[in-house]
Amino acid sequence: MSENEGSEQVPVGPPLAPTTESEPEHGHRDTRFFGQPWDLVHIFFVEMWERFSFYGMQGILLLYMYYSLEQGGLGMPEAVATGIVGAYGGSVYLSTILGAWVADRLLGSEKVLFFSAIVIMCGHIGLALLPGFWGLGVGLILVAVGSGGLKANATSVVGTLYSPEDTRRDAGFSLFYLGINLGALLGPLFTGWAQVTWGFHAGFALAAIGMAAGLIQYSFGRRNLPEESRVVPNPLPVNRRMLMIGIALAAIALVVVLVLSGIIRADNLAGVVILVTLVATVAYFAVILASRRIDGTERSRVFSFIPLFIVSVGFWSLYQQQFTVLTIYSDKKLDRNIFGWEMPVPFVQSINPIFIIILSGAFAALWTKLGSRQPSTPVKFGLGSIVMGIAFLLFLPFANGGPNSTPLIGIVGILLVFTIAELLISPVGLSVTTKLAPKAFHTQMVALFFLSVALGTAIAGWLARFYDPNNEVPYFLILGLIAIALGGALLLAVKPVLSLMKGVR
């Protein structure tokens, strides 16, 4: 995600971690990859294949869980399945915090990226080869942890390819994000085709093959990456490592005990992730605001981030229903017949990346042209929430219809509105977070933004249990109006929020 609003492409879905500054010597005159350093090609493709596998797997995941055994699925109740998808998605973004910590304190970004890619591949192999609920559990845990580690560090490694003065930086990140969007576009198409042709496990296997392809090419190129990418910025003292290992083992043991005792179950998993994320959020805000290492201006800016955080949570709780409610809707209500050919359900997940590729450049040009006249961050956030609410209201003309009652063009139009809302919030979120962050808590503030994504994603899974295909009006109407009200409230509070932001717009 961009640190400079409007100047870079943005990835489909939730944002990536910000870049780190560096001064590599060898990349200054290297222009072999479309005018960019050749080493970018290695990160471009490992990220592209990771997004291919991530979105490809997620495109068929919910169907796999609630389809009957006869259809090749696990036969879960839909409410339980959507809750697990939400919890899994939230865990991915919680894992970004862990991945960033391991890179900062133990291994460095490049090693965490490499090992995370291996973990992701193992997770997809688990989904492809292990049967039943054990395969699902092992696979999702590995993919969530690995995706968090890779997501937190790939962008940082890209940043090491450029000196702060290198004018190619923005263009390089645009190219990098093109790889993200290509993976997100192609993944659901190929895994959806494999699932329809050979079954769910073939789709998961294709995701594993894609991740393996990215890992193989990266393993050959990683040795040429700048040494800066391997630096551990804040090494953990040796005498504290055993303590951290003990804490990690205790946390794992606690989770195992809670699962075995029935306190953590499949049907309440989304709620557990929501609770954990809320506790982490309150703790982060409390630590930052109570610190003596920040001055009055920085403290005011942290307070100004609270309403933005709340609106961000609301936005992601609706946006991430692309992988829960929209999947069910596409399966049961959408007319997917195109000239006698029935489009597989996962193909719907590729519509949003197409719009991202088309519109992100347009938004970047718009913000650049407006310059200082562009809307402030609170206005963009408020408008993004309102547009997201409108997207849910657009389901109402098609509500309570029978099978195949919603035309494909209707969903295409709704997802266009989804994308506009995303471009008003997603590329702006990390940018403003880095601007508002106190110097002593830069990483923690970025973690807070990821927590808003994690919390919203988990809530998206929890909300989906209230979706009733036979009585859709209350669901889409209430959530749409809440999002509009949330955005409207922020627009009304723009002046006091800007006052707290102390010069940041």
From TrEMBL:
Keywords: Cell membrane, Membrane, Transmembrane, Transmembrane helix, Transport. InterPro entries: Dipep/tripep_permease, MFS_dom, MFS_trans_sf, MFS_Transporters, POT_fam, PTR2_symporter_CS. It holds the Pfam family PTR2. Residues 39-498 form the Major facilitator superfamily (MFS) profile domain. Gene3D superfamilies: MFS general substrate transporter like domains. The keyword Repeat does not apply. It is a multi-pass membrane protein. It is found in: Cell membrane; Membrane. Residues 1-28 are annotated as: Disordered. The chain crosses the membrane at residues 52-69, 81-103, 112-134, 140-162, 174-194, 200-221, 242-264, 270-290, 302-319, 347-367, 379-399, 405-425, 446-467, 473-494. Belongs to the major facilitator superfamily. Proton-dependent oligopeptide transporter (POT/PTR) (TC 2.A.17) family. This is Peptide MFS transporter.
